[in-house]
């Protein structure tokens, strides 16, 4: 083999190793939440400030934002999110000073904000004795065409003058349900 052929061969091997390492690291860094939820351990977050707990996939990373006012019908007093780069996200927002008594009243106010964004109730159920409403966002185009965002859903309920919004983004319906059903309030004994 000539010197040029050997050098080209070595260069090709080095480039191949570097590309393989890059794609291996990039693939691990953007781990998606499995579509069927299999093989993922779940963990529980407990909030001592507002006495609630919730379970979420342990591959999601937790961030807690500072308290800020951004909500037009009340004050956002806590924002916690568990996220990944893939289609797995869970968030909890807590609002105080709300100006409505029911989730249905809240949705009427929300639906009056933007004529191109609507929130449709998907279903209602109870966590303990607390009524929960699940809804998703729909965008309405200029000709009335609708686009549904079913992988992102929100479960809203009101407790002790505060509104709790649990939003989830999963490609798997069972994962939404598992998060919502895990939410509860700590009872002091």
Rg calculated over all Cα atoms: 23 Å
The CATH topology assignment of the largest domain is Protein Transport Mog1p, Chain A
Task: Give the ordered list of helices and strands.
Answer: HEEEEEHEEEEHE
Main beta sheet: strand number and arrangement?
7 strands, antiparallel
- Which CATH C-level class of the largest domain is it? Alpha Beta
- Estimated structural class: alpha+beta
- Which sequence of strands runs across the widest sheet? 3-4-5-9-8-7-6
DSSP helix fraction: 10-25%
Task: Tally the structural domains.
Answer: 2
* Unreliable stretches: 21-32
Total number of beta strands: 10
Strand content: 35-45%
Q: Count the DSSP helices.
A: 3
Mean pLDDT: 77
CATH architecture tag of the largest domain: 3-Layer(aba) Sandwich
Characterize the overall form: extended
CATH superfamily of the largest domain: Mog1/PsbP, alpha/beta/alpha sandwich
Please report the distance between the alpha carbons of the first and last residues. 82 Å
Report on the architecture of this protein:
By secondary structure, this protein is an alpha+beta fold. The chain has two domains: 1-30; 34-185, Mog1/PsbP, alpha/beta/alpha sandwich (Protein Transport Mog1p, Chain A, 3-Layer(aba) Sandwich). Helices cover 24% and strands 42% of the residues. The strands form two sheets. A seven-stranded antiparallel sheet has the order 3-4-5-9-8-7-6, with helices on both faces. Strands 1-2-10 form a three-stranded antiparallel sheet. Mean pLDDT is 77; it is low at 21-32.
């Amino acid at each position: 083999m000539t010197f040029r052929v050997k050098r080209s061969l070595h260069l090709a091997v080095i480039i191949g190793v570097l590309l393989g390492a890059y794609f291996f690291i990039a693939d691990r860094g953007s781990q998606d939440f499995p579509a069927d939820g299999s093989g993922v351990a779940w963990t529980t977050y407990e909030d001592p400030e507002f006495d609630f707990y919730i379970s979420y996939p342990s591959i999601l990373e937790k961030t807690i934002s500072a308290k800020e006012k951004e909500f037009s019908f009340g004050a956002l007093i806590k924002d916690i999110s568990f996220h990944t780069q893939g289609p797995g996200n869970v968030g909890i927002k807590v609002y105080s000073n709300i100006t409505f008594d029911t989730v249905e009243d809240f949705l009427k106010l929300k639906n009056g904000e933007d004529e191109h964004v609507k929130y449709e109730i998907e279903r209602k159920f109870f966590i303990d004795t607390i009524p929960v409403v699940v809804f998703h966002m729909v965008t309405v185009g200029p000709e009335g065409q609708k686009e549904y965002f079913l992988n992102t859903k929100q479960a809203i309920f009101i407790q002790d003058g505060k509104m709790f919004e649990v939003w989830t983004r999963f490609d798997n319906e069972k994962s939404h349900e598992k998060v919502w059903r895990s939410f509860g309030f700590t009872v002091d004994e």
